[in-house]
Specification:
The chain has a single domain, classed as YhbY-like (Translation Initiation Factor IF3, 2-Layer Sandwich). Helix content is about 40%, strand content about 20%. It has helices spanning about 5-15, 30-45, 60-70, and strands at about 20-25, 45-50, 70-75, 80-85. Helix 2 (about 30-45) links the parallel strand 1 and strand 2. The longest helix has 14 residues, at about 30-45. The protein is globular.
Length: about 100
């Protein structure tokens, strides 16, 4: 589990990132979770945007993605989710 201080640190890091995944009408699926897991292994911190045609609410999508990819949910801002997962091979972010 992340502490408040760590979440603040990750939020500041995520500020300049662009969303690299979009959840749309199809919602969350296995393939998307697999790809997000792989992206987290490379980048550690990613943003996912939820499109307006997505039928699930953002909290449900965030919970499904973080659980499926075994990642920490850093924050939800508007329709953007920030996820963090410590990388095994490409460790770039050192948490406070």
């Amino acid at each position: 589990m992340l502490t408040g201080k760590q979440k603040r640190f990750l939020r500041s890091k995520a500020h300049s990132l662009q969303p690299i995944f979009q959840v749309g009408k199809g919602g969350v699926n296995e393939n998307m979770i697999k790809q997000i897991g792989e992206a987290l292994e490379v980048r550690e911190l990613i943003k996912v945007s939820i499109l307006q045609n997505c039928e699930e609410d953002r909290d449900t999508v965030a919970a499904e993605l973080s659980k499926g990819a075994r990642a920490e949910l850093v924050q939800i801002i508007g329709n953007t989710i920030v996820l963090y997962k410590e990388s095994r091979e490409n460790k770039q972010i050192t948490l406070p």
